[in-house]
Amino acid sequence: MKKLGRSFFHQDAIKLARALIGTILVHRVRGKEYRARIVETEAYLGPNDLASHSSKGRTKRTEVMFGPAGHAYVYLIYGMYNMFNIVVGKTGKAQAVLIRAAEPLDEWQADLSGPGKLTRALKITRSYHSMDLCGDRLYLLSGSRIRLRIKRSKRIGVEYANEWKDKLLRFYDADSPAVSGNVSCRTRPSNAMLL
DNA sequence: GCGTCGATGGCA
DNA sequence: GCCATCGACGCG
Questions:
Q1: Which bases of strand B have any atom within 7 Å of the beta carbon of a protein residue?
Q2: Which of A6, A49, A171, A192 has the fewest Cβ atoms within 10 Å of its own Cβ atom?
Q3: CATH 3.10.300.10 holds for A6-194
C-alpha cells in the first residue's frame, strides 16, 4: 500500500469519489494511529453544483476549496457534527469529495457509518480545516480493489439543490455493512471482525 | 421497523 | 433562518 500523493487528488471529483472507495484513511494523533477503509463518498462538482458550498462563492469557509487539491475542507453542520471533505480536481475548480463512511481496521472498534459519526470517532475536528493531506498527520493509502463492487445513488441531504439534487454523485461499496443508513451494520459483525 | 423531531452553532 | 446529521422516542 502506497501513500497517495498530490497528483492523485488532482483528478476530477467524480473519478476520485469512485477511486477513493477502498482506500485507507490514516490519522496519527497523540501517539496512536487510527486506520479505516473508506466505503462511501460523495462528489461535489464546484460552483455550478448547487449542492456544493463552493456555489456560494469564495468565503472564509469555502476559500480552501478554491486552492490546490489534497487539502481538507472541514466544516460544522447542525451545530454538532464535523464533515470531512477532500479538495480535489484542478486548482480553482473548487471541487470536493465528502467522506461519508468507513470500516475501522486493525483492533480498533468504532461505528464509522455516517459522515458525522466518522469524524467523531476519528477525532477529525475543524482544527483540521485546510490541512495538507499529503503530510504525516492525516493521509491516505491505496487499498486493495479486488472484487470491489461500487454502486452509485443520489446524494444524501441535498433536497434544496434543485436540478442537482438527484444526480448520481454518491458512491459506495455494495458489500460493506458500514455504508450509512445500512441497518445491518448494527445487527451484524463488520467484515474486519469476521476475519 | 418505521416516521418524526429536537439538539445546537456557524455562517450568509 | 438555514443546514452535505444523529439518535431518541412513540407507535400499536
A1: 1-2, 7-12
A2: A6
A3: yes
